[in-house]
Amino acid sequence: MTAKKPFHLYLMSDDLSRMERYMQALSGHGLEPVLIPDVKERVEEGHIRDQDILLLDLASLEGPWKEIRKLAEGRKAAYGLILLGRLEEFLRLPRRVWSEVDGVILEGGSEEIFVSEIKSVLSEKRPNRVFRELSIIRSLYRQGKDRFFRDDFDDVSSFTLQILKVAFGCHYASLAVQSQRSKGEYGVTYQVGDALPMQNIPDIYEPGLVQEGESPEGFLRGMLEGKGLTSLMWSPIQGDEVPTGLIQLGKTEGSFTREDLEQLILFSGDVARTVEYIRLRISREKEKEALFREQESLIRSERASCIGGLMSSVAHQINNPLQAIQINLELAQREDLPLQKREHYLCIVQE
User: Distance from CA of residue 240 to its chain's centroid?
Assistant: First the structure.
């Protein structure tokens, strides 16, 4: 990127220091950011030119969806529209907002991610509506999961399910991580979500879809009826050689489409790294548990050895004087022993 292009920033918050830091980062990569006070007026008057970018801070918008939609519908040029905000702010947005924006930036991320997102919007044409929705949500997921990797894997899993629900507009989501393949079966070692039941059946580790109105047999039918679902789809999370996990999504109203399943298969590639992280954490926890049990066993063994040694020492200390008493009593009981000698032996016993 050699040509410098203006970067218009719409900001209605007091956190100018963060924006100044981002603006400096953009300036260092051949972009000229400009802070403007009233972007709405400039949009309406057509002052925002092609290849310009509007960065909207969600915290500064009173009605985020209404204001975003107004700006998107009022485009008189092919400018880019990027949202900046906290994760919880993004998750509260209705799904239809994703088709109106070109990029998202998760607050608190690195300057490198910030600049990368801006450059990707500048360099790419606006994709079709469906693909744009998913690509934006996948971008949010990739930014967010890298930050959540510092936390417990339960938090990472919950975050993954939240994003999946937003991406596919579903009510139920489940993420299962399997153990190593053994005798043709897949053992589930970890599962989080809305308790959609898992089965150790390899066939489920192929992408699948049950649309509204269909009547599957077996455990799939039980899943639909048990949760009151009208539609269900799933996709394996592929490892190097075999699937390492499974995503299951369910709707209580409406139906998933074949296109949804194709998009889920794409999304499962982003989730693969998360699953590998979870598998690694599970493996480490098992190793810690095994090490702890081994240490406990060694401690118990050492304790038993110490107690045995102490008992042997105590027995030795008691046995010596008892033997002396026994010998002197036997000597004192001799009939031919002089009285003075008998008293001598009894004094030894007394001592």
Answer: 20
